[in-house]
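Inverse folding, one chain.
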């Protein structure tokens, strides 16, 4: 009887949860992707009798399918970001790591992802590997990871960047190693804008 009550509650919450995740995906420039929760009943356990599976429909008219079957790495990262944004205040996971979240995005979408990551960092430690200035400017702490190889060994160096080093690194991300004074000014303006609007 308790499991039936739990199932009814889950079905109601799944609908609201799916709607909220859909809103987050639309904000992250994935307006056609819709998430739904498929609840099936099975064996009775201490957690109830439901099995939940997340399904997505990538385009209008497309049948919902399991996320793992149709989402690319970049899409999976953004879907995970949308899920975490909805669960932010209730999720007990202390650290979230995002890699490839900027795959296949640029411009406004990248800026939105950066802002969403920064908002998520109010509730979790967020570590994000990125190659886009729009995400890097949103970081509270900016680390540079460099690999150095010789004929006999490979080492990885991680450096915490101060403001000036951040500006240089953001300029490098924007325009390559040979950055001009104008590119440095643009990088500084982007960093300042991210810190005043966040």
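Residues assigned per position:
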């Amino acid at each position: 009887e308790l499991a039936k009550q739990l199932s009814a509650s889950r079905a109601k919450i799944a609908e609201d949860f799916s709607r909220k995740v859909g809103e987050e995906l639309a904000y992250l420039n994935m307006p056609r992707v819709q998430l739904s929760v498929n609840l099936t009943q099975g064996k009775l356990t201490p957690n109830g009798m439901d099995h939940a599976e997340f399904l997505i429909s990538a385009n209008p008219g497309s049948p919902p399918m399991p996320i793992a079957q149709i989402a690319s790495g970049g899409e999976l990262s953004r879907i995970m970001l949308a899920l975490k944004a909805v669960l932010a205040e209730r999720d007990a996971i202390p650290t979230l790591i995002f890699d490839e979240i900027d795959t296949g995005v640029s411009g406004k979408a990248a800026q939105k992802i950066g802002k969403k990551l920064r908002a998520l960092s109010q509730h979790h430690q967020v570590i994000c590997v990125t190659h886009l200035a729009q995400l890097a400017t949103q970081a509270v702490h900016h680390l540079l990871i460099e690999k150095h190889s010789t004929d006999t060994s490979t080492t990885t160096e991680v450096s915490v960047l101060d403001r000036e080093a951040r500006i240089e690194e953001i300029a490098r991300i924007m325009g390559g190693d040979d950055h001009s004074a104008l590119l440095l000014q643009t990088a500084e303006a982007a960093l300042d804008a991210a810190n005043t609007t966040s």
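The CA atoms of residues 72 and 117 lie 19 Å apart. The chain has a mean pLDDT of 89.
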